[in-house]
Specification:
CATH architecture of the largest domain: Alpha-Beta Complex
Distance between the termini: 61 Å
Oligomer: single chain
Helix content: 40-55%
Number of strands: 10
Strand content: 5-15%
Number of helices: 11
């Protein structure tokens, strides 16, 4: 049975509808690792999104990063995403909306172990015969994983934004504030211990490719500053504008793509999101006010979620780490794609500020930290 036929059979059997079928290929996954598709389920009058990961060592990375380390990181990231949907998606709310999880399954890579089938306990109880049959069918596909989830388009989030006016950016800031507040004190040991896809430990190949520079020589110190943050939450990990789906009236949004969700200082998500929306001049003009808005929303969300935390110390630490977040991402880009368009004047100013501060002993803890805004000249 081909993988495509297995997926179709899986969907039909799960929804008990032999007329279920794929109606749209939405996009291929990065480096050719699979597909996201829309399936019609006639017997319930709905569509669902199916994300199929079909790992291959013969990747097609546009920048040539196709080695074994890169391959394993991608494979692990899809399993990380499956864990997020299984264990944490239901803990979000309407202010940090994500697709509802329905069912996920994975066949361990290069293993004789049985597959893991993860179910949303509130959706469609399935039989042992189905589980046994799926286990038998998928066992031949090393590393295959399959995730079925809510169709956000059908739920009213059909708009995608390639350009981001300030009103759209503020929606993303709101989502991040509520997401970070939601998971600030929750244990998430089964997800990445360090969120984001660019942190130093997972990007050693790119680090080796960097030319000698102060940024390279201080990269480890910058990484330590971020990883040792006293206040950590769950990061989206890839919170770019392309990973948000908006309502038609642009009053609401939901997020997708949780491969790199994991622990970290929330300011890392904010840095990355702002950099995906705004160019250098726009960042110089709006970043400070957007950071103020984020912390104002975060403070309120923490109170609403009854989280016990010293917010003043959290804010001081995360504001201090803002420049370090830019420097950390800058380090990744300098090894991954030296001429990347996101390497701009604003990023360089923040990086230089972090480089000047990364041996400051006062940054070892949040108490007493004082944020000093770098001069944007």
């Amino acid at each position: 049975m081909t993988i495509d036929n297995f997926v179709l059979h899986f969907v039909q059997k799960y929804f008990k509808d032999m007329n279920a079928c794929k109606i749209q290929s939405i996009q291929m996954l990065w480096s050719g690792y699979g597909e996201i598709a829309r399936y019609s389920i006639p017997n319930i009058g709905q569509t669902k999104i199916v994300k199929v990961v079909k790992p291959t060592q013969q990747g097609a990375h546009p920048r040539g990063w196709d080695g074994a380390v890169s391959h394993q990181r991608k494979v692990d990231s899809y399993l990380n995403e499956l864990t997020f949907y299984k264990n944490y998606a239901e803990k979000t709310d309407s202010r940090c909306r994500v697709p509802s999880f329905i069912i996920g399954t994975s066949a361990p890579q290069n293993s004789e172990a049985l597959l893991d089938i993860s179910l949303n306990k509130n959706v469609n109880k399935i039989s042992n015969d189905f589980l046994d049959g799926a286990s038998h069918d998928i066992s031949q596909y090393n590393g295959l994983s399959l995730l079925i989830m809510e169709d956000l388009d059908a739920a009213g989030f059909e708009l995608r934004c390639t350009e981001a006016p300030l009103s759209i950016v503020k929606l993303g800031v709101r989502w991040l504030a509520h997401f970070h507040a939601r998971f600030l004190t929750q244990t998430t040991d089964d997800l990445w211990q360090v969120g984001t896809y660019w942190h130093l430990a997972t990007r050693q190949d790119e680090f080796v490719k960097m030319e000698k520079s102060e940024l390279k020589s201080k990269a480890k110190k910058i990484d330590e500053q971020l990883n040792n943050a006293r206040f950590q939450t769950l990061l989206h990990g890839d919170a770019k504008i392309a990973n948000f789906c908006f309502s038609a009236d642009t009053e609401d949004l939901a997020a997708v793509d949780f491969q790199y969700v994991g622990r970290g200082a929330g300011i890392k998500d904010m840095m990355y999101f702002l950099g995906s929306c705004l160019d250098s001049d726009e960042l110089k003009q709006h970043a400070d006010s957007l950071l103020d808005e984020y912390f104002s929303l975060l403070r309120k969300a923490i109170v609403e979620n009854h989280v016990q935390v010293n917010f003043d110390e959290l804010e001081a630490e995360w504001r201090y780490l803002y420049a370090f977040s830019w420097a950390d991402f800058h380090r990744f880009l300098k090894g991954w794609a030296t001429e990347h368009y996101k390497i701009n004047d604003y990023m360089s100013i923040q990086t230089n500020f972090a480089l000047a501060k990364c041996y400051d002993t006062s940054s070892s803890g949040s108490s007493g930290l004082r944020y000093v805004k770098p001069k944007l000249t």
